[in-house]
Specification:
heterodimer; A: alpha+beta; Jelly Rolls; six-stranded mixed sheet; five-stranded antiparallel sheet; 12 strands; B: alpha/beta; Rossmann fold; 2 domains; five-stranded mixed sheet; 9 helices; transmembrane helix (chain B); VWF_A (chain B); CLCR (chain B); transmembrane (chain B); vWFA_dom_sf (chain B)
Chain lengths: 274, 413
């Protein structure tokens, strides 16, 4: 009787653990659901300018609405910074000039480049829509790949750092160039940090200063230069992985193993006592 | 302020050890066509010149403080029929300086549509008015008719000014333009990396000029890239420190550079070639990093087709592993490896061979290398939980049996 009661206790504990674990999973693991359309974050100021080159790209942040007037044929650049684990979504709406002034259909393109000006693939979204001659507006979108925390130098994987968005019209009848348009852009992002291993020591943030031609490469004294792995006190805990979902999975696994161990132990004693 | 700057994204390196520099005032020159055709009354029933004058007045009123604005006119004074004389007719009516609003407005009000349209000469004059400097300078060209004074062809002049490497951008505005004017202005804008817009209402004209003046203000924070001339081969090519450079290369030409990279460093390079002239619809750019002996280390490439402003690519490279073993043996200073970079393109076009090459921007950065991560010390996933639970269960059962067996033997003894 007493043992039965104890077993009920174990079962109850198991159920409680499972329930607690399920709750933890629901809150901590990334939702696999499709990304919702980006919404402006409350209280953020509208950006009303755009750059005309990589160097002059206007910096915007996620959730900050952008609204600029421009001319058909302008190349408009914005930049944003992304962190590891982030999946960014770009949503653009171009209000086209009055159809009476246009002579034909136009093809619009949104290109996204990383900090090294490498073209980034869009996994979803209308990247190059064609606006009919009578259309009043055209919508563009691009969902980027999830940003990795580390990648081999030879790979083209998206890495933390600056990203550039370029809006351009890639094909249209020449007389339609130079007409006024209005562009609305919004960035959305979601994702969890630290989902994979490795760390990029310096984010892909390009230098903006003019360079300098040097006469000769300066030799460096290996004893004087800081060692890549300094052995000071602050790095004593460096071997510990960063906080991530893996800690929760492993800990929960340990707890489950302990509970299962106690349960297994009790199984071997049940028949003898009853 | 600190909190705000922490929230704002940083598109470029913020150098902590860089002394705070005094902001360079934006320098803009408006170049206005005051030729006879500006008398045409076809913008909402008003003459083109009156619309332009009103727009200029509004721009002068709304000018941000600290902007140095100059105004140059063309075709404003010569009333005769002699083309040689008429095509020299361009004057600066407001010098490039912090603007004196009253004087500028008086000068604008006095303009009467008169003569020829020497656009090329006016562009040269405007470039001289703006002088040289560390930041981009903008010319805003407003015209309603095509150049009547070629040669020099204004588009060639624009390309020639751009090739001087002084980073001059010509934004163009067509007042009720026809096909010829539009093509000419598009060519001028394309050659210098500027923009083209047509204005068919007074509001469009004012709005666009204001926007372009604002842009000039934005670009003062960006210093113009350093001019460099790449080598024909790796040996003897210029040795580059981190930063932004600009150079030109002709179609099918190769340009070489060298970058010193230490064993514990990673090289990052990117290049953007600007399409400053009409080219055939399909094109590509290739950036390769090679060792001194010509062995290819890594390449970045991009290709495209159709209308675009620049074609860009980039690459990262670092030595596989920092050579820790060799460190004790070298007592003296270590010479960094020199990585060669070569930029080539696969553009095709009908441009004359003696024309200046296509401009490109080269960005070099050398940062700490990011070593490959170790295998993860922690696990994740349902399979992990299952394996751990089964292992725990088996251990518990085994421990139970062992205890039973041990208690049984203890009792019998």
């Amino acid at each position: 009787m007493l043992i039965h009661h104890g077993q009920g206790h174990v079962r109850l504990r198991n159920r409680l653990a499972a329930a607690a674990f399920a709750a933890a999973c629901a809150t901590l693991l990334p939702a696999a659901a499709a990304m919702a359309a980006p919404t402006p974050s409350p209280g953020s100021a509208t950006v009303n300018r755009a750059g005309t080159s990589f160097l002059t790209a206007t910096a915007v942040s996620v959730g900050q609405p952008v609204q600029v007037t421009a001319s058909t044929g302008d190349y408009l650049y914005w930049s944003f910074s992304a962190t590891a684990g982030q999946t960014t979504q770009v949503a653009l709406t171009v209000a086209l000039p009055p159809a009476a002034k246009r002579t034909g259909a136009s093809t619009w393109t949104v290109d996204v480049f990383d900090g090294l000006r490498r073209r980034q693939a869009c996994t979803a979204g209308a990247q190059t829509p064609i606006a009919a001659a009578t259309a009043t507006a055209v919508e563009l979108g691009c969902t980027l790949r999830r940003v990795r925390s580390w990648a081999e130098p030879w790979s083209g994987d998206p890495l933390p750092g600056t990203y550039y968005v370029r809006l351009s019209v890639t094909d249209l009848p020449e007389p339609d160039l130079g007409l006024p348009i209005q562009v609305d852009m919004l960035l959305g992002a979601e994702g969890d940090a630290g989902a994979d291993d490795g760390e990029l020591k310096a984010p892909l943030v390009p230098p903006a200063k003019p360079g300098q031609v040097v006469a000769q490469a300066e030799p460096v004294d290996p004893s004087a230069s800081p060692s890549p792995t300094p052995d000071d006190g602050s790095s004593a805990l460096d071997w510990l992985p960063d906080l991530s979902a893996r800690w929760i999975w492993t800990t929960v696994g340990g707890v489950l193993a302990a509970v299962a161990g106690v349960f297994g132990f009790s199984l071997t004693w049940r028949r003898r006592r009853s | 302020m600190v909190a705000l700057s922490a929230v704002l994204p940083t598109p470029a390196h913020a150098d902590d050890n860089e002394p705070v520099e005094t902001a360079v005032p934006p320098r803009v020159e408006l170049v206005l066509d005051v030729s006879g055709s500006m008398r045409a009354a076809d913008i909402d029933g008003r003459t083109r010149i009156s619309v332009a004058q009103q727009a200029f007045n509004e721009v002068v009123d709304a000018l941000p403080d600290g902007t140095e604005l100059g105004i140059r006119v063309l075709g404003a004074t010569y009333k005769g029929k002699d083309k040689t004389e008429g095509c020299k007719d361009t004057q600066q009516i407001v010098p490039v300086a912090p603007v004196d609003r009253a004087a500028a407005k008086n000068a604008i009000a006095a303009l009467r549509p008169t003569g020829f349209t020497p656009v090329g000469l006016a562009l040269r004059g405007a470039a001289e008015d703006l002088g040289t400097g560390e930041t981009t300078r903008r010319i805003i060209l407003i015209t309603d008719g095509e150049d009547t004074c070629a040669p020099p062809d204004p588009c060639d002049v624009a390309r020639e000014l751009a090739a001087k490497g002084t980073h001059l951008v010509v934004d163009t505005l067509g007042l009720a333009p026809d096909d010829k004017v539009r093509r000419q202005l598009l060519c001028i804008a394309g050659a210098t990396g500027g923009t083209y817009a047509s204005a068919e209402t007074p509001a469009e004209l004012t709005g666009r000029i204001k926007q372009l003046v604002d842009r000039a203000k934005d670009t003062t924070t960006v210093k113009t890239p350093a001019l460099v001339a790449g080598g024909k081969e790796c040996a003897g090519a210029p040795l580059l420190a981190p930063g932004v450079y600009t150079d030109r290369e002709k179609i099918s030409e190769h340009r070489w550079y060298r970058v010193p990279v230490r064993d514990d460093q990673e090289l990052r390079a990117s290049v953007s070639i600007a399409l400053d002239r009409p080219v055939n619809p399909d094109y590509g750019v290739l950036l390769r990093a090679t060792a001194a002996d010509g062995r290819e280390l890594v390449r970045g490439t991009d290709a495209g087709s159709g209308r675009t402003d620049v074609l860009s690519t980039g690459l990262r490279w670092s030595a596989l592993e920092p050579d820790v073993e060799s460190e004790p043996s070298t007592d003296g200073p270590v010479k960094p490896t020199e990585v060669c970079l070569v930029i080539s393109n696969s553009f095709a076009g009908s441009t004359a061979n003696d024309a200046p090459g296509m401009p490109f921007e080269l960005t070099i950065d050398v940062v700490a290398t990011s070593p490959a991560p170790d295998a993860p010390g922690l696990g994740s996933g349902w399979l992990l939980l299952l394996v751990l639970t089964i292992a725990g269960l088996l251990t518990g059962v085994l421990a139970g049996w062992l205890t039973r067996w041990w208690v049984a033997t203890w009792r019998t003894n």
